[in-house]
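Thread: "does anyone have the structure for this chain?"

Original post by V.I.:
We have the sequence but no experimental structure in hand. Need at least a predicted one for the grant figures.
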Amino acid sequence: MDIGLMDVIKNIAVLGVAAYLTTQLPPFRRALSQSQYRLRDKLVLICIFGFFSALGNYLSIPVLGAIANTRIVGAVAGGLLGGPMVGLGAGIIGAIPRYFMGGFTMIPAVITNVIVGYLSGLVYARYGVRNIGVKTALAVSFGAEVILKVMILAFSSSSEAAWELERVIAIPTTVANCLGVMLFVYIVRDVYQEQEKVQAKAAQQAMQVIHKANGVLWSGLTITSAQQVAEIIHSEIEANAVAVTDTEKVLAFIGEGADHHIIGQPFITQATKLARQHRHTVITNDRASIGCPVCSCPLTAVIDAPLLVNNRFQGSIKVYKTGAGIILPYEAELVQGIANFLSLQLLHGELEAKTMLLAQAEYNSLRAQIHPHFMFNTLGTIRAIIRTDPEQARALIKDLSDIIRRHIRPGREMNTIAEEMDFVDSYIRLEQARFGDRIQIIKVIDPEAYDQAVPVFAVQVLVENAVKHGISPKKEGGIIEIRVRREDNIVYISVRDNGVGIAGKSPAHLLEAQPMSQISAGIGIGINNVHARIQRLFGHEFGISIKSGENEGTCVSIRLPWREVASDDADEGRKSCYCR
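Reply from O.Q.:
Generated one for you, tokens below.
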């Protein structure tokens, strides 16, 4: 009896249609979407490819007392697409019905089916499923056919019958089975390509969510911010419902099930309770595992991703599906990535709040920084002149009260140059009452810079340091020069004195202007505080630089961006002046 190529190809066509329909099954797609198969996934693939191998026995054609079939296709395809364990399992399942069919080729056929399944799995282990193409499938399936025919010729109960059989079916079955394996691999690779497109779309969706949700949670997880996040995720991701919770209650819920997952009430699903308890993502495609106590709840699958800040549970993002919908691995990665991004936003908000509290503490510390010796010395000076010059004493008392009032009153963090100069004038008058002509002041201020924004006490701290560390240690005293100028969009403020300098206190001789970041010691707390506040308010390209030399004086410069501050007091003292 002759066997035609078309007879076997018809069987391959049936197998191909079945293979295509199988690739559409959710369990099969879920198993193939894993980057590394879990035991459960491998068992699913063993059953599927074993079924095809077993089916190949019943799509057989009797020939010369033997059977020509497509059994080997399921074993080889299973090994190529699932690995050694899948190939071996599929080969065994396909060999079982062949054993009971009998025939003089039964023993080599059964043994070969198991062997080629395992060997095909070794090819998977060597190259990986993503790198196995149609050419590789052709080579492996051809090799499997060669092994099968050698085994039949060597171990059949009738060698003459085996030879006659292979003379008739060798070429048709080799061509047909190679086509079958190639067709199977081609169909599955098409599934992979489809999944890659879906994953690329998912990555694009994640970028859209990240772009739209950027900054939403900086102020914390509230009903308003949670509602915004839920709306963004629901609009970008194909989900039947989206929810956002905090540690106890539902903050936002959009989609099916909103009638009993109510905003403001405690969350009721077991999945969220597990996510809170274990602080890890919960994924389930089972209604019972979701744990909603409402029997009519339509939600059947969920990914519940916690929002963690320093491993503290702050809430969760929940994406639901209904009906036959399932959570695929790439969807789980998508939602987990979004949850990680939102967790970083919550962390950013916490850090911002802590930074603001720290800055306020630094500001309050600077405001309260009226040295006791300055107070005592000033009061001693006022007491000394109150009888000889009451008018000057009254003026000094007013200056001192102005300084104290500015230090202790709550207020904004920024002043204008005009306001800062008023404060400096009060301070200098008090010091001149003590030191007399030993302290002289020069101010050269660009008139258009009077409205420039400057951190409160920034200039006063520099002048105080010049008096305390530069001029007062010098017997004959000295001059302090304050200059403010604008160049394009940059404002420069300098406080220069001709005092003793700071070279002896610093590890480096500051003969050239050095930024604060390069000066490790010898600089007072007040100047460091001002520098840090400037960089926090305006950025790291701005701040303080210092130039000093022993017995040559010191120049401390502030670099600020041009920025005006409206002030009722800005007009006072708006005069370009040169005064001693």
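V.I.: this helps a lot. Residues 505-512, 517-522, 567-580 have pLDDT under 50 and may be disordered.
O.Q.: and The first strand starts at residue 61 and ends at 63.
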